[in-house]
Amino acid sequence: MTKQKYFTLILILGALTALGPFSIDMYLPGFPAIAHNLHTTVARVGLSLSSFFVGISAGQLLYGPLLDRYGRKPPLYLGLGLYVAASVGCLAVHRIEALIVLRFVQAIGSCAAAVASMTMVRDLFPVKDSAKVFALLMLVVGVSPMVAPTVGGYITTAYGWQAVFVALGGLGSLLLLATFLWLPSSYAPDTTLSLKPRPILANFWAVLREPQFTTYALTGAVSFSGLFAYVSGSPLVFMDLFKVDAKVYGWIFAFLSIGLIGASQVNSQLLRRYESAQIVPVALVCQVLTTLALLLLTLAGVIGLIGTVALLFVFLCCLGFTNPNTSALSLAPFTRNAGSASALMGAIQMGMGALASVGVSLFNAHSALPMAGIMAATSLLALGLLLLGRQRVGQLVTGDAVGGLH
């Protein structure tokens, strides 16, 4: 594979992976404007974010079997088309309920991009390179929380929140074109796979029976759900509690994202000396200590804007180490049913994220406590799941050791 082709693949796969996060981050600065325009509250607008997470979680279970049955690109065309249509629909809403529903539909479309890109990593690159490729994808994905809320803040201020969905629809259209022109067909359709419910469920069950998958998929999903708590709670924490405006909020969000990006790239270098299964527990312990500090300082009422930003930065650094490695370790045992495994991993991750997001919205106490509490709880739970799961796996494993299991 030439360097140019490698770069093109990483860029397109990264952009596809980033479509969902970009759709989440870009409209966050518009929460107060949406609430005012639709005559509702910021917390209720947050439910449109939760519905997006639910849509991604449910949709990934749909696209996994489709990607294995029909190949990677046809389901991707379907999903991106649905995403563009829903983005256009968001322009015309007059009630928050309509926005919540359309965001769910938009998520169903965007998750085709997420599942396809994760699966194609397994198709196009050797197992031993998976963690490095995932880290590179996170570099592209990391541009989203740096750019999206900042751009979203300026667009909302200049043109109104509806213009954000014009931009998202345009992005979806560009990705549809790039997929058609430059993304290779990486997998021959498997016509032996049935799309009837029973065989699909049996296939998912076969994936769940793999101890390495359940250990690292659950650990990664629960750990990563703290990010969704942060994303859902940050508009209230920064714009309502600390009284920053939409533009400043966008810049804070962008700065914090540097932690996620930087750590994921440091992780790529660490993989030259350490195995993925060695990095994950160290990062999780750091994540637990950081989120507990945020919770305790918030409870004591002694943490301000700078302290909150600093601890959130460290938290995102921890995720930059855990997420690429848990993703690679989860998918390493699979070849034939990699699409279903990727979909199931994504569904678990987004399902956990949806619960965390709903928790922040429902237990909104006009303080940072719901966000900090859920971040601490999920970090502790993830560490516990890792310790219990590694006993089932029986040993530290790497992609080289397990690449041929299935």
UniProtKB/TrEMBL annotation:
<dbReference type="InterPro" id="IPR004812">
    <property type="entry name" value="Efflux_drug-R_Bcr/CmlA"/>
</dbReference>
<feature type="transmembrane region" description="Helical">
    <location>
        <begin position="76"/>
        <end position="94"/>
    </location>
</feature>
<dbReference type="InterPro" id="IPR011701">
    <property type="entry name" value="MFS"/>
</dbReference>
<feature type="transmembrane region" description="Helical">
    <location>
        <begin position="213"/>
        <end position="233"/>
    </location>
</feature>
<comment type="similarity">
    <text>Belongs to the major facilitator superfamily. Bcr/CmlA family.</text>
</comment>
<feature type="transmembrane region" description="Helical">
    <location>
        <begin position="133"/>
        <end position="155"/>
    </location>
</feature>
<feature type="transmembrane region" description="Helical">
    <location>
        <begin position="343"/>
        <end position="363"/>
    </location>
</feature>
<dbReference type="InterPro" id="IPR020846">
    <property type="entry name" value="MFS_dom"/>
</dbReference>
<dbReference type="InterPro" id="IPR036259">
    <property type="entry name" value="MFS_trans_sf"/>
</dbReference>
<keyword id="KW-0472">Membrane</keyword>
<keyword id="KW-1133">Transmembrane helix</keyword>
<keyword id="KW-0812">Transmembrane</keyword>
<feature type="domain" description="Major facilitator superfamily (MFS) profile">
    <location>
        <begin position="9"/>
        <end position="391"/>
    </location>
</feature>
<feature type="transmembrane region" description="Helical">
    <location>
        <begin position="248"/>
        <end position="267"/>
    </location>
</feature>
<dbReference type="Pfam" id="PF07690">
    <property type="entry name" value="MFS_1"/>
</dbReference>
<feature type="transmembrane region" description="Helical">
    <location>
        <begin position="303"/>
        <end position="322"/>
    </location>
</feature>
<keyword id="KW-0813">Transport</keyword>
<feature type="transmembrane region" description="Helical">
    <location>
        <begin position="369"/>
        <end position="388"/>
    </location>
</feature>
<feature type="transmembrane region" description="Helical">
    <location>
        <begin position="279"/>
        <end position="297"/>
    </location>
</feature>
<feature type="transmembrane region" description="Helical">
    <location>
        <begin position="161"/>
        <end position="183"/>
    </location>
</feature>
<protein>
    <submittedName>
        <fullName>Multidrug effflux MFS transporter</fullName>
    </submittedName>
</protein>
<keyword id="KW-1003">Cell membrane</keyword>
<feature type="transmembrane region" description="Helical">
    <location>
        <begin position="100"/>
        <end position="121"/>
    </location>
</feature>
<feature type="transmembrane region" description="Helical">
    <location>
        <begin position="45"/>
        <end position="64"/>
    </location>
</feature>
